[in-house]
Design a protein that fits this description.
mainly alpha; 25 helices
């Protein structure tokens, strides 16, 4: 039975070369890349045998090995994979659970990541070949490393296949994965700021000291501890590694038994009681559109995915500025205006998200100003607490409470200017957007450069109109504090003038372009 699983996996791998030429080209590139990484790692591990500083080698292997194990465990759970050997596919064959679990585990050893891991783990035996005792420990740990990584991958792959079977859960997992990738920025910043020539080994040693006693690093640490003569720590870490492997095996067995006996998860419709935001807001066309917009922002993945991703760009910008050497108290002034910029800009194509449902607004005789004002309600509800909390946090990090009114004024002006201009552009220049019910991570194909042009114009117009407030803030910080008092006045005048003008002009455009808007919705349905 195990041989049949291995043969099935080999046939699946062989069928990968029967795809389109471009897919085969990508597969070959992946194989070459995996081979290059293998040669590089194997060469480094062999060379590490000649390094006299055993403690340094031990620290580096523990940290890197912990990252490798975490990658095997977390990547399938965060992004999901197409599991070609899902246990549920064998439910009708009557295979005993233990046999099925064993066969699928061994089949998981066949694959580019697993083969690279096997070769690299086997090479660690050479790295720790100081004496027969360390060779034995390294050999045991190499086997444990391979089985633990593959088991962790199989367990999280099965969980991901079950949990991420619906579109909404896949989108949520994708958002979480992107947010976690954003966290790599601060880690890279920390790595760059460390003086590796002076403090690098100390930093690695401190991290390895913690990881060596966790399931992530114990199996990588035991051979190094034995090579340094600390056999007590080596034995304890080997026990931790074996216990981890045993628990993963029991979890994999239980998971296979559960998956084989349970149906595949399906999308379930929720039961909602009451009218939601329509009950909370007063009557009238503006309130009705505001309630509908709030409902969309809470339930439609196209909206909440975009809102969750708004903090991503400020984090990336902060990391880039920090790497460039800009002082932290100046960097602190950047994130809040950027968040407000993207929040105000978020509705610049809001009308296109309605698709053909926009006909309800047109045939009901809804005034354009009511439509424009109602769609602003969600970003205003989100933006007010962001402004309050963000302004205070920015001022605390900056270290001077005198800038609080100007920081809040600049961010608020950017928000309301964005809302005003977006009210015009969404009615005057709508472009195709993701259809209702489609994945939030897909974008429709558009001909020409209209979408990019509208996005660029609406985005940079916000910056241009807000630039006087920004100039006053910069002058107040660098030249004279008098300008800090001028910035809020300019923000109120420019911001609310743009907001009211945007509602008025956007409303008139909406009233006049009703047939064109309906034709656009039908054309892009």
């Amino acid at each position: 039975m195990v041989a049949q699983f291995l043969g099935l996996k080999l046939r699946i791998m062989g069928n990968a070369f029967r795809r389109t030429p471009w897919q085969i080209f990508g597969l070959v590139i992946g194989l070459l890349y995996g081979g290059f990484i293998t040669v590089l790692v194997v060469g480094s591990l062999v060379a590490a045998r000649l390094v006299s500083d055993v403690a340094a080698t031990h620290s580096v292997l523990v940290v890197i090995g912990s990252v490798v194990l975490a990658g095997f465990a977390l990547l399938p759970l965060l992004f999901g994979v197409d599991d070609t050997l899902d246990p549920r596919e064998f439910a009708l064959f009557g295979i005993p659970n233990r046999t099925l679990a064993t066969g699928l585990l061994l089949a998981g050893l066949l694959g580019i990541p697993s083969l690279v891991l096997i070769i690299c783990a086997a090479t660690t035996v050479v790295t720790w070949s100081q004496n027969p005792g360390t060779v034995l420990v390294a050999l045991i740990c190499a086997v444990v490393v391979v089985l633990t990584c593959v088991l962790a991958s199989r367990v999280t792959t099965a969980i991901a296949h079950s949990m991420l079977s619906t579109r909404r859960s896949r989108e949520a997992g994708g958002v979480i994965g992107i947010l976690l990738l954003v966290l790599i920025g601060p880690v890279l910043l920390l790595l760059v700021t460390v003086d590796w020539g002076r403090d690098g080994l100390g930093a690695l040693g401190g991290a390895a000291g913690w990881l060596a006693w966790t399931p992530l690093g114990a199996m990588w640490s035991a051979p190094g501890a034995a090579a340094q003569g600390d056999w007590g720590a080596a034995v304890l870490q080997l026990i931790i590694a074996l216990v981890t492997l045993g628990l993963l095996w029991l979890g994999w067995m239980a998971l296979v038994a559960y998956v084989v006996a349970s149906p595949e998860r399906e999308q379930r419709s929720k039961d909602y009681h009451g009218l939601g935001w329509f009950d909370r807001l007063p009557g009238g066309p503006t309130a009705a559109i505001a309630a509908r917009s709030m409902t969309y922002w809470g339930r439609d993945a196209r909206y909440w995915v975009s809102i969750v991703l708004i903090p991503v760009i400020p984090v990336a910008v902060v990391v880039a500025l920090a790497l460039a050497g800009l002082p932290w108290h100046f960097i602190a002034l950047v994130p809040l205006p950027l968040v407000c910029l993207f929040l105000g800009w978020s509705i610049h194509n809001d009308l296109a998200y309605d698709s053909t449902a926009i006909w309800l607004h047109l045939v009901s005789g809804t005034r354009g100003m009511a439509d424009r004002a109602g769609r602003m309600f969600p970003p205003v509800v989100v933006g007010i607490p962001v402004l309050v909390v963000g302004s205070i946090a920015t001022t605390i990090v900056f270290g001077d409470w005198a800038v609080l009114p100007s920081v809040a004024a600049l961010s608020g002006a950017i928000l309301v200017i964005g809302l005003g201009l977006s009210s015009i552009s969404s009615a005057l220049f709508p472009y195709p957007a993701t259809k209702p019910g489609d994945s939030a991570f897909t974008q429709p194909q558009t001909s020409g450069a209209s979408a990019a042009l509208v996005q660029s114009l609406s985005f940079f117009a916000i910056l241009i109109l807000a630039s006087p407030v920004l100039v006053f803030l910069v002058l107040g910080i660098t030249v004279n504090a008098f300008w800090l008092a001028i910035a809020p006045v300019a923000a109120v005048l420019i911001g609310f003038a743009t907001l009211f003008f945007g509602i008025w002009l956007g409303g008139r455009v909406f009233d006049r372009r009703g047939p064109e808007i309906m034709a656009f919705a039908n054309r892009n349905d």
